[in-house]
Structures are given as C-alpha cells and as structure tokens.
C-alpha cells in the first residue's frame, strides 16, 4: 500500500524574479530621483510649517471645503507637517521596494543564544545588505534623506516659541506712563485721594483700558495696580515715601513668583499675601518679600495728583510680574 502524500508539504520559496531596477541602471536612477524628490518635498514642507507658524495670525479663519470654516494656522500646520512626515515614509518605502535587495532567504531557526559563527554571519549579512541597498553608493538618496530627517524635528523646536514671549520689550512695558489717571477697577471712575481710606485696599487700572477691549486680558495682566493708604510715618522705605501721595502707595498687583493676582491685605502689619503660593510682601517697606517663593519685591508706581485726581508720574521702572531670563 502506497503512503499518502503530505497535503501540507512545504512548497519552498518561489523563484526570485529580478525587478527592472535590478537589470536596468536607468530605471534604478529614475527610482533614485523619485526617492530624492520625496525627501526634498519633505524638507520644503518642513520649511512651510515654520513659515506658516510665524506668518499666519492665530485668529485668522478660512473656508476649506469640505471642512468649512477652520483656523488657517491649524490647517496649515497640519497640512505641512503631514506632507513632511508622509514624504519621508513614502521615500523610505519606495527606496526599499525598488532599490534595496528583495530576494527572500530561508534560514533555519536557531537557539536564542547565537554561536560565534552565527554572529559572524549576521554581521556579514548586515554588511552585504548595506552594500546592496546602495546606501554608500547612492549619495543623492543618502544626502536628501539626511536632510529630510534633520529638518523635520525643527517643527517641534519652533513650537517651543509658545513657552514664553519672544525677547522683545513686551514684559518691560505696561500701559502706565506719565499723565495716565488711575481708574477704580470696580467703579470705572477716576480715583481721587479722598476715595482711598487709611487701611483700605483699592484696585486700579490705567485710564482708557476697557473690559470690552479685545486684548483687555493681556493688558490687565501687566497693568493691574493696587493702592493702599498708610500713615506716612509708617512708611520705612525712603523711595516709597517719595513716590507716594499723602501715604497712598501704588504697587503692581501681579505677584513676582508666577504672576498670580495679589489680593489679601492685612491692615495691622501692612502685609499683602498672594493666595497662590503664599508669597508675602511688606507694603510699608518697599513691598519687599518677607515670606514665600517670590524672587523680588513688587514694582512700585510713582504717583501724583493733578486736577484733584491721582495719576502716574511715570511708568514702572522695572518689569512687573515674575522674573524672566533677560531681566537685569
């Protein structure tokens, strides 16, 4: 009786068929140029990402079919970054499919711990694969790939800009300058000296700054002011006394730790407390820090009186709020 044939016999690997690029150098050159083109497009898309991030306003809205109204900045960033990443992937895939070796080789499984001769063989196979890929010989592909891979991370580096303001004068300037009246932030009326009682805490803003202004929040974050009326004999700091008016002193309301609004005043000690991290300032001694993580005193605004109303005699002499890298 004849033994039945195994229906699941290993058919083995099919015969290897050469690609057109394996036998025609002109076809190989076309594939090389295609891969290089994809890498170059990736580089241009990365440059476009950076240009869009810098040039397109964050509040600009455009109509994109079929999405509808959308942020021009978000759409541009997504499109350019997507093209940059896609072209790197497409270039790598096309390179592998057309120019790298595609011959399948069957090898028997071996123990996890390789023998020395196996390790030698693996290293030799790796060297052969690198040679067959044309990585060393096809410099156009290699150089454009390196260029694309080097530029793509710049997309993330550019986004670091949002970690803080650019090194300009934004943090050094506020809405306060000579002749600007102090306006009560609660009543929106200009302040007179008699409006501020001894021991009271009043919050003020520059005249002309309105809550319905489109950039009100950005401006009040630097312009917010607090006024306290002390007995002149209780003021210890000489400059603070010179910059006050009949015991009325004006300091920035923005804590010099992380920018929280200082708002808790203790009348008997003349101390003011930031509710976020408990930084405490002595308003009778130049608003110096007496407790907490704040790095420096609250900036004082030089005030005077004109036509019966309190106004700034000058702007702040130092940046308000937390310390920053360019603060001298």
Automatic annotation (TrEMBL):
<keyword id="KW-0411">Iron-sulfur</keyword>
<keyword id="KW-0408">Iron</keyword>
<keyword id="KW-0812">Transmembrane</keyword>
<keyword id="KW-1015">Disulfide bond</keyword>
<protein>
    <recommendedName>
        <fullName>Cytochrome bc1 complex Rieske iron-sulfur subunit</fullName>
    </recommendedName>
</protein>
<feature type="transmembrane region" description="Helical">
    <location>
        <begin position="140"/>
        <end position="160"/>
    </location>
</feature>
<dbReference type="InterPro" id="IPR036922">
    <property type="entry name" value="Rieske_2Fe-2S_sf"/>
</dbReference>
<comment type="function">
    <text>Iron-sulfur subunit of the cytochrome bc1 complex, an essential component of the respiratory electron transport chain required for ATP synthesis. The bc1 complex catalyzes the oxidation of menaquinol and the reduction of cytochrome c in the respiratory chain. The bc1 complex operates through a Q-cycle mechanism that couples electron transfer to generation of the proton gradient that drives ATP synthesis.</text>
</comment>
<keyword id="KW-0479">Metal-binding</keyword>
<keyword id="KW-0679">Respiratory chain</keyword>
<keyword id="KW-0472">Membrane</keyword>
<keyword id="KW-0813">Transport</keyword>
<dbReference type="Pfam" id="PF00355">
    <property type="entry name" value="Rieske"/>
</dbReference>
<keyword id="KW-1133">Transmembrane helix</keyword>
<dbReference type="Pfam" id="PF19297">
    <property type="entry name" value="QcrA_N"/>
</dbReference>
<keyword id="KW-1003">Cell membrane</keyword>
<feature type="transmembrane region" description="Helical">
    <location>
        <begin position="62"/>
        <end position="93"/>
    </location>
</feature>
<keyword id="KW-0249">Electron transport</keyword>
<feature type="domain" description="Rieske">
    <location>
        <begin position="222"/>
        <end position="312"/>
    </location>
</feature>
<dbReference type="InterPro" id="IPR014349">
    <property type="entry name" value="Rieske_Fe-S_prot"/>
</dbReference>
<keyword id="KW-0001">2Fe-2S</keyword>
<comment type="similarity">
    <text>Belongs to the Rieske iron-sulfur protein family.</text>
</comment>
<dbReference type="InterPro" id="IPR017941">
    <property type="entry name" value="Rieske_2Fe-2S"/>
</dbReference>
<keyword id="KW-0560">Oxidoreductase</keyword>
<dbReference type="InterPro" id="IPR045603">
    <property type="entry name" value="QcrA_N"/>
</dbReference>
<feature type="transmembrane region" description="Helical">
    <location>
        <begin position="35"/>
        <end position="56"/>
    </location>
</feature>
């Amino acid at each position: 009786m004849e033994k039945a044939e195994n229906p699941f016999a290993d058919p083995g690997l099919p015969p290897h068929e050469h690609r057109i690029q394996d036998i025609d150098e002109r076809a190989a050159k076309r594939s090389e140029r295609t891969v290089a083109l994809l890498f170059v497009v990736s580089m241009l898309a990365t440059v476009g990402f950076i240009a869009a991030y810098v040039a397109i306003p964050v509040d600009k809205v455009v109509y994109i079919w079929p999405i509808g109204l959308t942020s021009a900045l978000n759409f541009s960033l997504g499109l350019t970054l997507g093209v940059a990443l896609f072209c790197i992937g497409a270039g790598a895939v096309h390179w592998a499919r057309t120019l790298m070796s595609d011959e399948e080789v069957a090898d028997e499984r071996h123990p996890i711990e390789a023998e020395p001769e196996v390790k030698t063989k693996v290293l030799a196979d790796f060297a052969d694969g690198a040679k067959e890929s044309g990585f060393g010989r096809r410099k156009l592909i290699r150089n454009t790939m390196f260029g694309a891979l080097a530029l793509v991370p710049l997309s993330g580096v550019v986004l670091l800009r949002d970690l803080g303001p650019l090194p300009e004068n934004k943090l050094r300037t506020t809405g306060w300058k000579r002749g600007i009246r102090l306006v009560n932030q609660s009543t929106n009326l200009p302040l007179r000296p008699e409006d501020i009682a001894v021991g009271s805490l009043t919050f003020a803003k520059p005249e002309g700054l309105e809550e319905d202004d489109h950039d009100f929040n950005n401006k009040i974050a630097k312009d917010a002011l607090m006024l306290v009326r002390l007995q002149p004999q209780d003021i210890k700091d000489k400059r603070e006394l010179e910059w006050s008016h009949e015991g009325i002193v004006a300091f920035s309301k923005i804590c010099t730790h992380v920018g929280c609004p200082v708002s808790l005043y203790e009348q008997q000690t003349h101390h003011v407390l930031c509710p976020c991290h408990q930084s405490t300032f002595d308003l009778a001694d130049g608003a110096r820090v007496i407790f907490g993580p704040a790095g420096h005193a609250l900036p004082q605004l030089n005030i005077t009186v004109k036509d019966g109303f309190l106004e700034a005699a000058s702007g702040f002499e130092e940046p308000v709020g937390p310390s920053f890298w360019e603060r001298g």
